[in-house]
Amino acid sequence: MNPKTTLGAFALLTVVAMGATAPASGAEATSTVSRHATARSAGTDGSLSSGQALLGSGNSHFNGNPVTIQTTYSAGLYSLKDPTRPGLSCGRLNGPVFTKTTDTWGDGTGTSLETACVDVMFAAQKHWDMLRNWLGRNGVDGAGNSYPAVVGMNDVNAYWDGTRAVFGHNSAHTKQLTSLDVVGWQYGRAVYEMSGSNDGNGTEAQDLSKSAADIFGTLTEHYVNHPLALDEPDYLIGEEVNTVGAGPLIHMYNPSLTGYSNCYNSLVPPLPGGAQDHWFYLLAEGTNPPGKPTSPVCAGPSTLTGIGIRKAARIFYLGLQRKTLGWSYGRARVATVQAAKNLYGCPEMNATKAAWTAIRVPAQVGEPTCSMPTPPPSATPSPTSPSGPSSSLSGITVDPPSARVSPGGSTTVQIKLSPGTAQQVTLSAGGSPAGTTVSIDQSTTATINVSASTPQGTYTITFVATSGGSTETTHFTLIVAGEDRRCLINDHPGCG
């Protein structure tokens, strides 16, 4: 995030800090890594320094050839370790990270473990970039870190064990389970575990966890946006790896096609993932999107119009930051409806409600409401100067919209005003938890400092822009959490 973002013709800016505010999970630490033309010209003598980050060339199975992946050079060897995304590496199960004397990796075949690691590194790096660029999250754990991956498990399976992503092969032994969506799925499980609070591991929470992984896998595909010949963006999970020889593991637009439930039923334990997958598709794409599969509804209006995958992603993600003990479909509805209202406004909030209603998750006590103002009668517009911007204040946003900060930590967010604002504007922030302060500088960068005594939890901080008689507000979600979320995974060694 650039703290020097230009706001246009801004005559005068007054900054006021009113009370404490919240941190944003995305103080982006952007690393610029460039590969020199000769691939060996890091120093003036043409040598490479130990620990240097490089851009290696990979021959992948799922992502085309060649692909560029972040690698490391150290002590005369290149390795599949990414120093710009701390913690990310790939090697054989029960073996070391892959190393070699050249920075070219894999042979493109579906059975090669080195090729599998090329696909893992490519997908995990793109998943990280999607989290940062689309959702404002700083790394898989929200604090600038990722986790290692291993390939070569002799099983038709892939899983996240709380410390690493583990990948096996399909039932035909022709492909490793390392396509974009499957890799995004495993790291998505990690993001879910490290968002909000402990979900309690109830039946609905487990279902929502698996579905969240489907959504993160799908977002990774859409972020990369491969052509049809590769792992193109769609709403299918596992179609490229053909895990058990029966095609996709789930059709998010109609989960019943793969034996899952399209609809929520509070009296029957849901089949993993289906209902929330269906909700996400209806929110993003609607019931009959052009060029994409139609999607049925379980209740409510028969026709829904999608708001787009990026808006749906931000609503889903911000809702996930409100995850609490006893996480359920009803609580997920309330959290995402509030997120939609905070991020965008009434139309998106109502679309979020409609999508939940469509899968039979009813309105909940305490969910926000929003009234749509009646447009004023048309009138002749007032003349404006063609040579200068409007002086009205018409909007304020904060980027990123949420952040996870440990007690004693800090983060920064960028406050953005509507283009063309050209008069005195006062910025303020309020609603922060005890022990948290916010300061806003002249470049409209807000720094949020969380003290070690701030109680852990999820908080909403309101940023306010005032200009003349006009006031605009936007909301930021601060998650204060310091415990190791990996221990929320039951099968993680060392966790009870």
TrEMBL record:
GO terms for biological process: proteolysis. Residues 208-361 form the Peptidase M4 C-terminal domain. Pfam families: Peptidase_M4, Peptidase_M4_C. One of its GO terms (molecular function) is metalloendopeptidase activity. Residues 56-190 form the Peptidase M4 domain. Residues 1-26 form the signal peptide. Keywords: Hydrolase, Metal-binding, Metalloprotease, Protease, Signal, Zinc. Residues 373-386 have a biased composition (Pro residues). Residues 25-50, 367-411 are annotated as: Disordered. Transmembrane segments: none annotated. This is Uncharacterized protein. The lineage of its organism: Bacteria, Bacillati, Actinomycetota, Actinomycetes, Streptosporangiales.
